[in-house]
Batch of 4 targets.
Target 1
Amino acid sequence: MSSATRTSAYLKNILQNGVGRYVCQLQRVTFQFCKSRGDSKGIRDFIETHLVDFAKQNAGVAVYVQPRRHRRPYVIAEYLNGAKVDFCVHEQNADEVSRWLEHLRTRCGVQIQRLRKQHHTDHPSIQGQWTPFVNLPTELNTTQFPSENLSRAIQRQPTATQKILDMAAKQQAASGDQGSENKPV
Amino acid sequence: MAACRKALTLCRLSSRIESARFFHRWQRPTFQQLYKLRKMAGPEAEKPRSAQTNWNRDGELYAFGERLGELLGARTLDRAFTHESYVAREEEERRRLGIAREEEEGGKLDVDHNGALIERGTAIVSTYTKAYLRHQLPNLPEEGICAIHDYLTSDNMLEYIGSNLGMKDLILSEDFPVRTHTVGQTFRAVVGALANDQGEERAQLFVQDFVLTQLVNQDVSEMWTLVNPMGVLTMILQQRGMVLPEPRILRSTGSSTVVACYVVGIYSNKQLIGQAPGETEITAEEMAARDALAGIFGIRNAAATLKLGTAGRHLTIDPAARNPSLDSLCGRPLGGDSATVSMAAT
């Protein structure tokens, strides 16, 4: 899919999170699995081995476990901003489930979109935004236009005529010096 | 209608059918019919989160406290989220059904509501916000402090903060969907509960971390605007014994076009104290006067200089301190509210 058709967004921070204190944005996580189907094996292993540790380390996340007969296993994450992510962990092992859960835990719940920029700053320029007035001499405020001085063409290099005149002057000076040397005393 | 609901349940189930290589002949007419019924029945009514099966109120309350990093008792939290209107409704319901126990007089329930917590929380939110702002912006007149305070502690702002902290799902109240005012009150009740359980200082830090941080990226000078900035500037400079302000055009361009731009600077004793652009000389002068006042009040870059987070942990804030009022800065009464407009009022 081309970037023109994908929705885009700027980086944003919900509720200035982290300026004061950090609040984990994952509010609630529900594990849905089947007790008998093979594709739920990984999530069942995860629940047996890792889930209690996860719940202890993240006491701010409410954890629910829902067995559902003969259905695909899902991890459903609900975020503080009201977003809900249904994540299918079909045929994944306990380690994979654990890693996807970590991904869901560290997200902020904002929809994943193409980011216009990978960075954000409140101060895009230290010097301030450029305007046509930046570094403009103040005397222009009182100058009467048209001004003869300012209307003249600006010459940064000597013209061809000027160069030839300079060369001629140099030559003349040199021949003058020679002449003085050859002069009989 | 019952048949309609049953059909809709069928529709939800059929969407879960896993992949097949063909469509049954009955599917198209059935789904068409179901679609018609769905349109007739209209959208499903919004339900509270607690109506779903994966909901444990005690667990959610515990997670709420842990999420904020605060040690709050289960009973206090429960109380903070229970509104008076909910208790009243429950009592009414019990009376109506005739299931009020005998020891309950007139169907009164033995449930605490958050009335007292709201009262305490409101006082803390209001007092601390003002005290913090006075401490951080000592040159801003009292009217400006009040305008920023009104912006931060309005129901809209507290609802925004509270709902992003997951308060909406936990509220026990008569109204659903929960009203803005109810969420605002719940936020205040939580602050009150914190003060009760953990002491006032923790409650103040909570306000600093969640309410005052909302000033980041905001332009403080837009929350409080003066009606006649040049007049006020003149009076303030006069009161301070400084030379009266003198506006000068610093730059101008395109004066005979529709995109004219003038940059006006305000000088006092040949010192540039403020400058601003504008599309006419008068607008530019007014904006320059506002800029000069922002410089005098110390709010040009206020949001960036606020001490928040770790820098705001050990501030010695005097709650009794007051900033000078605008009248005292000007040396004469300006006629009350007519002189200033705050964002909350407009």
Target 2
Amino acid sequence: MSAPPRNRLNPNDPRVRALLWQALVLGLVALGTWYLASNTMANVARLGVASGYGFLGREAGFQIGETLVAYGPQDPYARAFLVGVLNTLKVAGIGIVLATILGTVVGIARLSRNFLVNRLAAGYVEALRNVPLLLQLFLWYGVLTEGLPGPRQALEPLPGLFLSNRGLKLPGPADDPTWSWVAAAFGLGVLLALAATAWNKGRQARTGKRLPLLPITLGLLLGLPGLVMLAFGGAALDMPVLKGFNFQGGVTLTPELAALLFGLVTYTAAFIAEIVRSGIQAVGHGQTEAALALGLSRGRVLRLVVLPQALRVIIPPTTSQFLNLTKNSSLAVAIGYPDFVSVANTTINQTGQAVEGVAAIMAVFLAVSLSLSALMNWYNRRIALVDR
Amino acid sequence: MSDGAFGLSPGEPPATRPPPAIAAPGVVGWLRANLFRTWYDTLLTLAVLYVLWLVVPDVVRWALGDAVWSGEAAACRAAGGACWAFVAEKWRFILFGTFPADQHWRPTLAMLLTMGVLLASADRRFWGPRLLVLWAVGLGAAWLLMAGGLFGLSPVPTELWGGLPLTLGLSVVGLAVAFPLGVLLALGRTSALPVLRVLSTAYIELIRGVPLVSVLFMASVMIPLFLPTGVSIDKLLRAQIGLILFAAAYLAEVVRGGLQAIPKGQVEAASALGLGYWQRQRLIILPQALSLVIPPLVNTFIGFFKDTSLVIIIGLLDLLSTAKAALTDPAWRGFYKEAYLFVGVIYFLFCYALSRYSRYLETSLSKGRRR
């Protein structure tokens, strides 16, 4: 019996089939893309819409309510986009920090042996997780605008802090050189605290003795600026004052930003709480018992034994919650906070360049998501179990 | 050296141990164990009780005591409590949107059919190919009831659909289409063929990296541009396409988790039996992989059900939008708390039921794996 003739294009050869399949899929995708792209070009040409990012240099012509950098309607679209990106980053940054703190507290409360505390925490988690975030944002926005009195009847829960339907007014630092000295002292405090930590590490390795780092760090971070302020005899504050129909001066948290932040933080915290709870529960009880048997105090058991192991379980899902919070900040468009999506949406409406606008939104969020997950992956690798 | 370091020295009397603690029975024992275990526990309990004492009476007075259950807005404004009369007045609009009022039995029946299909799918005894038939028949009948145009039902265009039927329809149809797509994407991402792997991975990561709002924007403004001149599809279908594209990427990641948990030996044994790729996936791999990830799949379903509320941003009248629209009635301005609480309770019931179900599945499915 002779060997079967070798056919280079035998369809029964798995390698040939693999190539054929891939060529087929690639061809279909290319065909689909070409079809959609050619339709789009034809439609865009028919509607007489410009294409490309030339509009970025033109005057935007719309006002933005809240900006971190100077902006006016005569500025170009590129500047408006920058304002939007910064606003998105501001909400995401503050939101992530606050949601982490609140989520950790609620997650630990869920594990409390105190019946009232753990039931309350469980109720909080269930109530917030099972209702759409957008609904919660509408509710908080309603409470902050319709539910609060006007500036003239503003609530004043603490002296200098006013709550009205124009937002939250706080005393801010006035235009006073003392504040720059205070800021400089704070920077010095951070540097000294870092140096103390590094020195303590070497000292502990040599002698086994530890410095009381927490009081030292707190003293440096709070004490130094405090001392500077005392030395200058106090620094001036810019107090919000009612003038006419609204407040003047002070720092403002607009109802839009406050509702968005409050909604995002409470919602995401419910998810983080569940992650924290399951992470702590994932650490075997034997670990705690062994650590106690070694004579470590309860605080150190938590800090040196339980938390480092729990963090390995907690970090990856928490990363995706951070990403969710960042993406959810785009719901700002529904309550009128000028985040990037809302700015891009206005731009689409004004220029008609939908393709470019949507592409810009996707590019910005992809960039933010990818950098955030790169950062969290780096942190995750740092705390991961070292395999030998 | 004596053994004093480890045991008691012989002369010393045996240490008197405290008697074993007996848990006090009854209410007092429960209170002591759960609320007043230590001094800081007691402090915490008292603090929580104080806050509850400050908040709860006011809330109860607002929601029940001073509440107005029927009548006009003026009566509500005078009473100062919750205005449930607003919900009594608007519940039909909130639930059904602008669907013709004399035809409300049709969306009601359609929703009951959909929920019947869902309940049947929740029962493990029904799991199997029969479910596909049930879904096709049930959803087809629900669609017919909503759209009309046959059997003497007056046609109702999709622009008039709204409220809970729309939310349910968007989620159920969205998941029914996105799930097979997600499985295909997951298979693509774990495939040995590099082109498929790269394309699936790029799609999944792109969609997961951007917010749903932008996908919906894309669906609503770009789909008309994608189509040849003169062809148009309605807004509901565009939103549905956007939701499907979005959900498929998330479902694919969950399914991939299951696929990766299946030991390689399973694939190799199946190949050794002479099964081809699709036979392997259909008979050996997917049944195991999918049953592993059912609980996270249900969690993704819950998230998707909540996410359908975002269609308000492209102007569809879903359950949340109808509540918002009901608030624009000048006669009933300002009763936003009542409206959102009403809608929130509906969302909560659906999501909570689903999450309880996912927990039940988790325990009942892991029985075979538990030792």
Target 3
Amino acid sequence: MISPIIAGKGISMRLGRGAGQVEALKGIDLSLYGGQLTLLMGPSGSGKTTLLSILGCMLCPTAGTIEVGGCDTIGARPEQLARIRRGQIGFVFQRYRLLPTLSALDNVRLALDVRGDHSRHATEKASATLDGFGLSHRRNAYPHELSGGEQQRVAIARAIVADPAALLADEPTGALDGDSGHGVMTVLARVARDPSRAVLVVTHDPRIVPFADRIVHIEDGCITGDESSLDRALRPAVAASCYA
Amino acid sequence: MPLVVKLACRNLVQDRLRFVATVVGIVFSIVLVTVQLGLYLGFERTVTTMIRHAHADLWVVPRGTKCFEDPSLLDERKRAAALAVGGVADAVPLLIGFAEWSVTGGGTTPVFVIGSTLGAGGLRPWNIVVGSIGALAGAHAVAADKTYFDRLGVTGLGDTVAIRGDKAHIAAVTDGIRSFTTTPYIFTTLDRARAYTGIPPGRVSYFLVHLAPGADTDTVRRQLAAKLPSAEVLTPAQFSARSRSFWLFGTGAGAALIAGALLGVIVGTVIVAQTLYSSTKDHLNEFATLRAIGAAAGYVNQAIVCQALVSAVIGFLFAACISAVAVEVTKDSALPILMTPELTLGLFVLTVSMCIISAFAAIVQVIRIDPMRVFMS
């Protein structure tokens, strides 16, 4: 049996206090496996981002367990959680979250720098990762000089440059036009082909469904569906038609 | 350049106006501290000028003397008792006192007369630019500093005036012997000083004790103290410390200078803290991103401290340049601003410490940052 890269069991999350308290997640079980691009879909307020934050060790659940790489993260302090994120998880955000004062190359290199790799090798690796995403000519450009699609590809390069076991993306195409969204999803699908890496994409964009290996539906804090997607061979054509 | 330093520098220069404000704050603060501490050091040095130039091994002073300018007197006959102590080679009498200098063309101005032997053991004028020590042996001869010529109503060597009604003839001119009290120093012989100041015969201000070769200062000091119970025997360092203490703290001048320096530090710290805090606030989303991608709190703090350090170094360099100009401009004044390598190093350490302390508020803000901010639009 294949071990999950991230395994969440019985995840519950209450947000707020007193009368305004909301139960955002209600005992969710979700595991992410290597070589799989999982889409987490659901309407606004369904708990998608909260679940992603918990699986990504940014938020501690009110109840339940989270194992990353086989290690239990429940009860970990903020610095320990940061260490887990540093070592195991890459993030892609809807608004890219590139540092505006650094070039594309430095933004990617930053992910290695926070991991303590300040070597020349880090620069070469960051550069090679950008090249792999077709951004070799934009290496020295600053975020404001890049298009939305380019910024998101730089953000993905930043997320994977340190070879994390899991890549978690929050609405990665949410701020992009159709072509750029398609380009970004193509890149994420390529990243997910690595059998040692799990990719979770939170979205409510139906056009990216064809890129998924697995689709998890969430509604009102509960998982309402968990299905495998299309055969990989058919995906490019379906995806192209969705973005047409 | 390490990426964290690059990030800090870019964050700083991104808002140039704020960066300029930070640097101006540091410069203002450090220049103020430099001027205050430089004046303190200058004052400290100026109030002990005469003690340093006397080159005595020990000073015999009237009991309770507070500073060099103290008007208390000793019985001159005690000199014999001092000379009788083993290890004492000489005990040179010194007489000091205020006198009235009649300005040519009318009016008077106070002067501070120093009367001593013209031999090597006395307190003789230095930095003589016209005339000589030997010329002071002539009738009515005195030495005056050229800085005070206007005040004294003289033009130079050979001018004749009156001090307390007695004739005085300028036989030597010095340069740079300035008094922090702004009262001109007038050097002359012991007897002539007595006439000018009106101090009766048989009374002197101090004995400058010179030790015989090989004599132990402590032993001689103890023996002299035992022989002269109505006087105190001090080393030059002790007398200097006493003078400094009187002028700097007895008068409140030193406290005012230190308070000014402290104010500079406080103002600088507040300005830097305020600008760093607001800069951090503006970059909170970026710091949250760093935390979200796994950066340790230490890494983020490093970026903030780097910002503080870069500001400190740039601010210090500007402040040092301005302070060097201030030192140059005041070097010939009655109260020069003194800079020493130790003070420069101390000010650099102070600047860096001030900026790092200023970063504290910003660091506290970043420590509390929620990485979940990255999900907010």
Target 4
Amino acid sequence: MPGLTPTLGFTLFYLGLIVLIPLAGVFFKASGLGFAGLWKVITSERVLAALSLSFGAAAIAAVLNAVFGTIVAWVFVRYEFPGKRLFDAFIDLPFALPTAVAGIALTALYSENGWIGSVLAHAGIKVAYTPLGIIVAMTFIGLPFVVRTVEPVLREVERDLEEAAATLGARRWQTVLRVIAPAVFPSLVTGFALSFARAVGEYGSVIFIAGNFPMVSEIAPLLIIIKLEEFDYKGATAVAATMLVLSFLLLLTINLLQAWVRRRV
Amino acid sequence: MDIQIRGVQKHYGSFHALRGIDLDIASGELLALLGPSGSGKTTLLRAIAGLEPLDGGQVKFGDIDATGLSVQERKVGFVFQQYALFKHMTVFDNIAFGLNVRPKKERPDTVTINKRVRELLELVQLGGLEKRYPAQLSGGQKQRVALARALAIEPRVLLLDEPFGALDAKVRKDLRRWLRSLHRETGYTTIFVTHDQEEALELADRVVVMNRGVIEQVGTTDEVWDAPSTPFVYDFLGTPNVLPARVERGALLLNGATATLATAGAAPEGPVNVYTRPNELRVVGDDDASALTGKIVETQRTGLLLRLGVKLLSSGDVIEIELPHPDPDVQRWQIGDGIRVRPSRYSLFPRAVATAADESGYDPTLTVTEHRERSRT
């Protein structure tokens, strides 16, 4: 293959410089604790709670985004309505907005005297300063990932296919389930993975709305900052390294799943 | 099953795609809808399938009024130009789709479905390819899978939209022949859309020539070819010469000639256009006063045919003549030679008829598909 050596060389060099070396630094620093020390940090109650909150909330947010993002993408692809371009631009706002702005806005909305928060408070639902608030923030920042990955694929699903299914006697729900869904599924997995990854790493918008009570609404990235502020560098990198490994394993699994789905298409 | 179409109307916004179509299709017939793009042929096909809701008129399958039936209820086999195969399904699952989506009560059991799919695979000569995905098939194979899939539901009628449009010339020819024999074997009432006159004339029992939302002519290959009923059909099935003339008291006088020609049947009185094909013009001697005099401005030999471009003295128009195999003993025509020609077969149409082109809403730069898309949004 002509050009393989220089391009592969460049890719590996670039990847190493930008991604792998900084990440290796995390592991190097964390390794200073030794295995037992590392284990002790990771299995401490507060760290475990933070990790499961971060990953759990991110997973829920990604699922919500997968469902509602697909619906949004469907509407944008299939229907014309006044102000479509405007709404289209709104979708991308969470991409561009400084996360702190998103956090402050959401907190103001969902706190007990905010527009939505006050209504929900009547129903006995508390959003701000609870894990629920974290999910709200993560859903907010993850939505465009699903919409923007599913939308082009949905656009590609030819009307011919739906019409063919209809002439063959398929009811509408059968067409959606058997014809459209399988075509869109791989891109939905990608959107889910991106939304999930973004939510796991999200910091700025979450810490405003989370309340950050240890063991309840304290996310792992915040715990890392706290440890850094306490000059517990090794502890901080230990949590960081754990997040890295978990994230990598999850994304790898999703990628493999996707490759498997693609091969069948 | 026979099909009756009565007064079918369809608009896309201001574009009048079907202007009151009446058509009867006999059971077991193989019918071609022929016309240029924008003529409404695909719209008519989709209207029969129920894919386009009608603005007026009626579609009947035998005794059943299908006008109000949904696409699903119509049970038509529809083959799309771009095949529209389900990419994530194997050939087998594609063909079985129409059986698998039936309500539980009507769905055949797995064994029956298996048997049926295998029969169809044999019928379309794709035995052994059932585990393939559409991406692993050639264009011709995809088309045959699409056909098998449509046949699986035992449709009332088989509808094909430009079935060979996306295939190369060689595969096209083979598939055409094969479709013809398949039709003979299965006997399904079949309607296909094409813009290729050769395809329509070769394949179909009857041809429906369409133009701008109306039917110009319906007939067998011979009828359409030998007696085109409108100038459009003449133009669409070849490149006729148009000679201005007059009809007076039943006799035809070509502009520039001094003697009249006979007119067959009822000819319109007054100014007419004489439509005659290049091969229907005869070279005659000086004594024939009904002929036109011209000068050869172009000669071109293709195989056994000699084509002459003749500039008429009377009008200065250049007409085209096709002569059979130039015999070495006969006169060799040269550019600049004088020549006298007379039409041996021709049709007359009154001159200066208003055409549908004057009506609003027709934008020749838009295809019907574009009109369809526009009206959706």
